[in-house]
From TrEMBL:
It comes from the Bacteria. The chain crosses the membrane at residues 12-30, 36-59, 80-102, 108-130, 142-159, 165-184, 212-231, 237-254. The keyword Transmembrane applies. It is found in: Membrane. This is Prenyltransferase. The keyword Chloroplast does not apply. It is a multi-pass membrane protein. Keywords: Membrane, Transmembrane, Transmembrane helix.
Amino acid sequence: MEYFRAIFSKLNLLSVDVVLGAMAGMLFFSDLLDVYIGPAVYLLLGIAVWVVYSIDHLLDSKKLKKGNTYLPRHQFHQKNFKRIFSAVAIFALLGLIVLLFFESSKILIVPGAVLMSVVALWFFILHLTGLRASWLKEVSTAVVYVAGICLAPFAMAEAEKLNHYFWTFAVLYFFLACLNLLILSFQDAEEDRDAGFGSILTVMSKMQLKNVIVVLGILVSLVSFLLIFIFPSYYSLHAAILALIGMYHLLEFFKKGQKKETTRAKLEASFLLPFVLLVF
């Protein structure tokens, strides 16, 4: 059992759970819009998410002095900096090959290039400005995350499918991503402060952030639950999935005596729930 826990821990430190969650998110929107997404596109999304997250973690770990890191994720990336950097370069090249040479992904060349350019520029600005713009990190990360998982389904969907149902779920998914990131910022507040990293806590107190998390979690969960009965039955399962993810986040947020890394791993794992759509 300890062996499997160690493997799971390493996968979490490498953000593999985030990658799988993003793939599940794209499945969610492809099912919502009734479009088929080929394996190459899922591979491309996984590569893009892993490269972006890994670069962000590498930049964070580079800012810290050796032996003075505060979170296991920072320690891991600092210790394995060269290996992970090499892997990032290899996977970035692989992603470019998939984008250019697989027929199913060619439709994403222009929108994908635009999105990646915006992401690169924005996170460069965040790292450049440091604490001054750090309060935007959670919101901007949520925007990029949802834009990434929606990109292929959006590009391949018929125009009439991009209706108010789609946009409602896209907004709810954005707020769920925000909820996830805000909880992580809340629990890592002391470590981030000591390491000199900024977050939304640069513009509000921890108690105010707790109130925001509670209100946001309740609203997302409640609205998603009500949509089960308000929207056509086709969307009932999609609404139920979002409601369950939202409620699970609230339950984990209020759970006492749990290690921070355990909470992080369980919250990231909740975004795998859309994979249930594969059996319905």
